[in-house]
Every structure is written in structure tokens, then in C-alpha cells.
Amino acid sequence: MSDFFLQIGAMAMFVGIVLILSKKLPDFKDFHLYIFWTLYSLIYISLFIAYLMRSKERAPVLSFTIPRWSFAIVPVIVFLNGLSPYLGLKTENSYSMYSNLRTEGGISNHYLIPAGVQIFDYQKDLVEIVSSTDSTLNKFALKNQLLVYFSFKDLVAIRKPQRVEYLLNGQKKVFDLKNAKATNDPLLRGNSLLLRNLLAFRTISKFEPQPCAH
Prior knowledge:
single chain; 214 residues; alpha+beta; five-stranded antiparallel sheet; 7 helices; 12% strand
């Protein structure tokens, strides 16, 4: 029962602090990003520590064991999903979303994890679209956004633009639909359906620092 009141008290304190700070800070966006989640995390960490300290007074239990190995499947999948950007896999729908972390093009701005640990090559080749007859592809040029080659390949296969001028790792290239059909250009085939559904990549800004985006 005491644990219950401890949690209620912590939540009440949290709500009170939120209400006070929301009135003090005129910019709600700054409040949400820098204050709200910090307080949220600190309160739950304090509750966890309090629970561990109180549990010592009770009968000993194996707190960090799982009854069956199958219970670890979902946590392992979640953990690997979070690691995927640093392994050279997808950057969308992972823990690097809504951050300015960059791992593409052989560059990593992570403080601890260098680009050299990547064991897959999906992020290494970057495409800068210079111009295109397709409006969707041309938007990337107007916004100064780069794409990994994997995503560019799918876009070309789906959109089938008449012409695209682009830089692949700094080298100028031209895609012409008529010539591509005659030569069976690999860009027209795209990636396999399985990989397309498993691997999604966000765009990269041409200029640093990277914006916080998904």
C-alpha cells in the first residue's frame, strides 16, 4: 500500500511541476523537448530505485530473470531494431528517428558509435538529385536532401521518370527512361519486396547540422 501512495505522490508532484513550468515557458515546443521528457524520465527512475530499495525488506525474488527464454524474443527484436542504424540497416522506424543523428555515407555523428562498425552497406552510397522531370524526385533537389541509393532505386523503379540527373557518391550520372528500358537498367527493377518492406531510410540534409526529423 505504501508503494501505491508513493507512486500517487510522485505523479501528483510531476503534474504540479508540469503545470508550473508550462506557465513559465512561453514556447511549448521547447518545454516539450527539453523539460517534459527529462522530468518524466527522472520520476520513473526514482520510482524504480525506490522499489528496489523497498524490495530488500521482503522475501528475496529473482527480479531480473525470465521464466522462459521465449519471453526474451520481443525485447531482443526491439533491441536489434534500435541498433539497426548503427549496423548499416534502416534508419526509419528506429530509435534514431526524430533526432539529428547521422550514420549514412560512411559518416557518423554519434559520440560513441563510429561508422566503421556497420556490417551492412545499405547506407554507404548516397544520391544527390540535381534535377528530374518527375516532381516527387525533383523535390529532393529543391530541399537539398540526399537519399541512400537503396531508396533512390525504389523511387526510380516506382516513379519511372523520363530523366534524372544525379550524383552518386559525388559522381555525375544521368538516368534516361528510354535508354534504361533498352539496356535493362537495374534501377528499373528496384529492390525485392521483402527488403522494401523491412528497410526504410530517412532523407539526409545536404548541410550540417542535421535537422531533427524522421
